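Forum: Protein Structure Q&A
Topic: Joint prediction for protein chains with partners

I've read a bunch of threads here and the consensus seems to be that you should model interacting components together rather than docking separate models afterwards. I'd like to see that in practice. Below is the full input, 434 residues plus whatever partners are listed. Could one of the regulars post the assembled result?
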Amino acid sequence: MPNSVPNIVIHRLPFYLRALEMMAENGQVVTSSQELGDRLGISSAQIRKDLSHFGEFGKQGTGYEVDYLRQQLRRILKIEALWGIAIVGAGDLGHALVNYAGFRERNFLVETVFDMDPKKVGTPIGSLKVEDQSQMLQRLKELDIKIAIIAVPARNAQTVAELLIEGGVRAILNYAPITLNVPDEVCIEYIDPVIALQSMTYYLERESMEQKRAVSE
Amino acid sequence: MPNSVPNIVIHRLPFYLRALEMMAENGQVVTSSQELGDRLGISSAQIRKDLSHFGEFGKQGTGYEVDYLRQQLRRILKIEALWGIAIVGAGDLGHALVNYAGFRERNFLVETVFDMDPKKVGTPIGSLKVEDQSQMLQRLKELDIKIAIIAVPARNAQTVAELLIEGGVRAILNYAPITLNVPDEVCIEYIDPVIALQSMTYYLERESMEQKRAVSE
DNA sequence: CTATCCCTGTGTGCTATTTCACAAATCTGT
DNA sequence: ACAGATTTGTGAAATAGCACACAGGGATAG
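Posted by a regular:
Agreed with the consensus. Here's the joint model:
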């Protein structure tokens, strides 16, 4: 593997970028590792060390130029140009994702959405029409899609992932509550709100007298 | 801090639980650290070490009883009984979250949803009605809500978080694309699909001849 | 021009996390 | 009852990640 930058560093860069975008919006011209760190709850040394993996972007005594550092981070993350993405699953979640303006604002364009349910195929979501999942392989190749989001039930997610990969997709964001098995060269990230909630409840106290009853199984 | 178990360990437990739930659904009675690890892409030693923080749950030569380990993990994560949650923001995302069956299936109950837009207040989502955000403080206390999900635009998220905390909320799942400033004793987790996408693009190649144009700023 | 202050980039040591590897416990088949 | 095959729980070793602290470049003010 020719990539020496730790994965955990890469995963922090988008947060730095997000903070910089907000500063830029507010017209701020320069910032410092200290200020960034305070905003993000990270030590300033960590930020400097992370950035040092890629070059020297700051000026001693001054700090970082917001706009310049932002450009550099975009270059590093390869998000200067638009990426097309496909969404699989046109349920409530799929709808919310297709309609989410944040993708476009941050250089991701939802180019197509698929569903396997014949009743959903053809219905419009925003400016798109739901396409038939049986056409997915072909359409992915046509559109040269490299990134996809899985928003189907857990039981179908593995099959969908395999189909996506066969269609040329190299990065998958999986909303289905299941760990997927993918080749090493395919990137995968998971979003599961319940998992996030469950790691917080560990730290909570059960104070309430009347505990709410569990769902019967 | 009386809690010696590393945070990173706590964050893996829900994944173990999720895999166990699936095994239980399939009628599987016993499993092993090896099998769990294979499913989750984690080493078996890691799983054994993680579990050892809390006790001895397996039998040498046999492995773990799926049902027993599942119960234990639920106990450790304090999710044996139902937790009530509040959702703030009744946009597309808020709708999808309120309608998401996965919360209820995994012992979280969406008890209320708020929005600040008078036009949305009173409209039904599933079996709930959108409540006015100005009533939030009072309602949170009435319902004794400890967990909330923020699904409002970034510019309002900090204010909403502060209000939630004042209302007694101790754990926040934030979907707004901004890092929030909260007291140490409040748990916070973030979900931002764009951040997830951006850490994957780093690993992708820009192969396509015709790069898609960036959104003009 | 000089003194002072500010802030980066980084070598170094420290802490946290993961992996290794093995004794002991349990099961299976004969 | 015993040999061989499994699999746990866990010290010890290895690896990874983080924070400290400071030299040195640059800004500022007088």
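The longest helix of chain B spans residues 7-25.
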